[in-house]
């Protein structure tokens, strides 16, 4: 297993994330609605809006898992925020970064992961809208576009809540 590295702009990224005051907040229907839509659109058992904090990934919304956070060092989302594009892992059991990851070899037995980065208005990557399945999968170009579109709605919802902030 390869733990995710920190982005080069980690200090600024965390400052933005904390300034949004979204971590550790209650569930909200506007985010849960989007995860339900993604679950139905992509026919996956797990969908999450994950925010990558210093040592954890915290789920603003999550369907299919009964946890609100996991350790960042085992997170797929921690890898996804290293780039400004969708991270697709078609078969985690065959990917050297994840093959022996506890989330792969134990419940929830992640085999497939697709995470689209969620950005703040200042461009900082906050986390992802991610799709997870226990069986390998591929994504079409249209699937990637739909995931990106849903992630853009998540970004807009976060921005609406925080439009008075200076970024």
Automatic annotation (TrEMBL):
InterPro entries: GAF, GAF-like_dom_sf
GAF domain residues: 26-165
Taxonomic superkingdom: Bacteria
Protein name: GAF domain-containing protein
């Amino acid at each position: 297993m390869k733990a995710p590295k920190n982005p080069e702009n980690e200090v600024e990224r965390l400052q933005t994330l904390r300034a949004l005051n979204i971590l550790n907040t209650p569930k909200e229907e506007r985010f849960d609605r989007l995860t339900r839509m993604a679950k139905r659109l992509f026919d996956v058992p797990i969908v999450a809006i994950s925010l990558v904090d210093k040592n954890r990934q915290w789920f603003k919304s999550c369907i299919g898992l009964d946890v609100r956070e996991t350790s960042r060092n085992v997170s797929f989302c921690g890898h996804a925020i290293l780039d400004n594009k969708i991270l697709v892992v078609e078969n985690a059991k065959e990917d050297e970064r994840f093959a022996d990851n506890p989330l792969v070899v134990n419940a929830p037995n992640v085999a497939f992961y697709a995470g689209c980065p969620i950005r703040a208005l200042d461009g900082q990557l906050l986390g992802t809208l991610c799709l997870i399945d226990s069986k390998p999968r591929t994504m079409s170009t249209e699937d990637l576009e739909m995931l990106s579109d849903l992630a853009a709605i998540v970004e807009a919802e976060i921005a609406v809540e925080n439009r008075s902030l200076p970024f």
